[in-house]
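Changelog note: in this version the structure field was regenerated for every chain. One regenerated record is shown below for reference.
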Amino acid sequence: MSQQQKYAELFAAEAREHLAEMGRALVALEEEPGDQASLDAIFRSVHTIKGMAAAMGYDVPTRLAHNIESVLDELRSGGRTVSAEVVDLLLEASDLLEGAVEATVAGKTPADPSAAIERLVLWRLADDSAVQPKPPETAAPTPPAPATEAQRVAAPTSRRSDSSRLRVDIRRLDALMNLMGELMILRGEMKALADQLGAESLQDAVERAGRFIGEMQAHVVGSRMVPVWQIFDRFPRLVRDASRSVGKEIELEITGKQLELDRSLLDAISDPLVHLLRNAVDHGIEPAEERERAGKPRVGRIKLAAMRERSRLVITISDDGRGIDRDSVIDKARREGLLDAGEEPTDQMLFRIMARPGFSTAAQVTTLSGRGVGLDVVETTIRGLGGSVNFRSELGAGASFRLDLPLTLAILRALIVQVDGQVYAVPATFTRESFEVEEAAVERAHGQEWIYWGGERVPLTRLRTLFTGGEGNGSSTDGVGFLNLVGLEFGESRMAISVDEFLGEEEIVIKPFDPPRGAVPVFSGAIVRPDGRPALVLDVGNLS
């Protein structure tokens, strides 16, 4: 990669952040036209993009940004008022600016911005009949002097003002993480060798090295963590445009966007979140008149929230719309042979049905949804990341999706178990406890085994039977008739798995792998244990 290409990629990455901030702030400004903070944030972003584009010699982005900046100058000086018309104009121009940035960096010719620039210039030249004459001045205390132009442009932002930040190519972090994984394996091998030799001085040295490796590991993992606002800030604009396209009035409320997630995970969950938000706009929230007839506020509300639970990040998307039409989903599922007659599915079963590729009850296809290709993407992507999806719906009150995700896929703690002589790793983020029950305590109903765990009846999966298809109760060596169980919890779902033996906990670095043809699809990767032997990592979500 040439030096120019490196600079171009850095420019594009920085510009994308500022464009996302512009979109968020423009939507906020549309809702609160007097919001000076949003207006200043938009100006700072455009000003920064203009400066970077000019330094790179990119003509089209520079001219566009300059004309957007001129319109913002009019608004900030009080010469013109914020209106829906000018917000639409600025959003259109920001879309064109985004396209110009991407095209220029890719070495392509950007779309001609002349028409958009002309509209911006005409708006500045037009008389603003909506501007009210200023009332006569009356004696009043002298207000504080307004900030100068330089002060406004340089006003600090909590996200980008830290000069100590450094952009690093994610591929370099991936390579560093892979080396970190090899170092952890080497640490395990050294410890095993030191224990075998019984040399106390060597054991002490290995222990010290292990502590340093642990600290290095924490820093490497931390370097991959980024705040979720980097994708959340795109969504106010998305919901605003989507709701307009279907003629609905919708507000998006976002919380927890300062929480952090591994960069690779954050990039991967963007599409699932877009699908869920579009579904909420198109199918969840009712038209304003229908909401009023139902005694609801005219404006629908979608909530996007991120929160930490143990060592996982939970993202929820909920709406106060109509909820899922259970009868419609059940009727279609029975017609397609996905449900037996008389079977009453839970909300989670309904989600699994709706997440099947091509399944849709929409009466018509819209530009937002209706083709049955949304929820299957959500289900497949989140499970592929080692996460889980839980769904709840109440007719007339709304629906919610809960996405449980590991904070990082780089290095995890895992419970190491043995089944039929083979060793497996169960990610500790899903394990709640290991315990023993009598075989006689197992109940059988509807083709499924069940046990009571913590006073709750949960499904039981015997790994020996699942992996080999053979018999065996997974009992310990203490005696036939007892099961060694691991209690698993993912989202709002709980289950137990039976194993032959518990081997303890270890820190693991998961390596992706292609499972053999015909293998049971319940593995998310492989690890190399300290003794050098490989082990498969269970995909807990696919066990349910």
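Spot check on this record: The radius of gyration is 28 Å. The chain is about 45% helix and 20% strand.
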